[in-house]
């Protein structure tokens, strides 16, 4: 605009604190904030060691990127790191409002596009209609397949999960305010309690989000208190991430099945939840309700966005019978930003309203 004052590239900020540069995306409405620059080096010989290091030494980065005033309670993030695996194109640490996840399907779908578009892997051959991106997540190596044209991403993305399995089925827990409730515990890169919302007196498709959050949180708290979560390969993965409330339609059907995922500190996933879809398919296959290569559509009760998924082959995880699950969805870019810090700002490291 003629006569407008010149705007500096960055506002006044602490020169000893690098600006955090991010790219924002969403998958099915669930946000992802990818840190491009400004995060100090995350040290560790393995990805899980890097996750521990970031939690202990760099948690201020997570808080600054995700929490208010730069973010909000339900913001989700990713920090890209080097992987020790020779086949990985990149490693990633997942950030949420209470800490660090072991897997995030919506983020993996978005990161597949991002990795291809930002040159984090060799350009696909001329004429290729799909590019493979190997993303090392804390739960393991995840293969991501990105639709592309002329070397750029376009259209849907799909991933093949780590081995997904059922830890406990038909488990009875005492849930305050709801009595004895039957739940299942399944792993899709992260552990979830799975329960039909109807068992809690709610309709997942019509209830208010606050009521669903309260019920899911009560289940999470009850399961954590009454059942020990174990993982056959790593103690770092042995924790309950959250609760998924479903419409109870677990038997195979061509119609969508609806769910909502509440994880971390009452964070609500806007998408159908990629690792949650993985866990639900593992449970349905375990109970004989779904066969191999039978695709199902999963719908978010929050936004009505959809993912598709299917069990593509059997696998093992320790002594557990498991399946590899394919999940497909659509990710979109929403913008970029540079976040700065002023040293005298008492809220520079972020906050959450309780």
UniProtKB/TrEMBL annotation:
Signal peptide: none annotated. InterPro entries: Pro_racemase_fam (IPR008794). Keywords: Lyase. The keyword Lyase applies. Its EC number is 4.2.1.77. GO terms for molecular function: trans-L-3-hydroxyproline dehydratase activity. The keyword DNA-binding does not apply. It catalyses: trans-3-hydroxy-L-proline = 1-pyrroline-2-carboxylate + H2O. Belongs to the proline racemase family. Homodimer. PANTHER family: TRANS-3-HYDROXY-L-PROLINE DEHYDRATASE (PTHR33442:SF1). This is trans-L-3-hydroxyproline dehydratase.
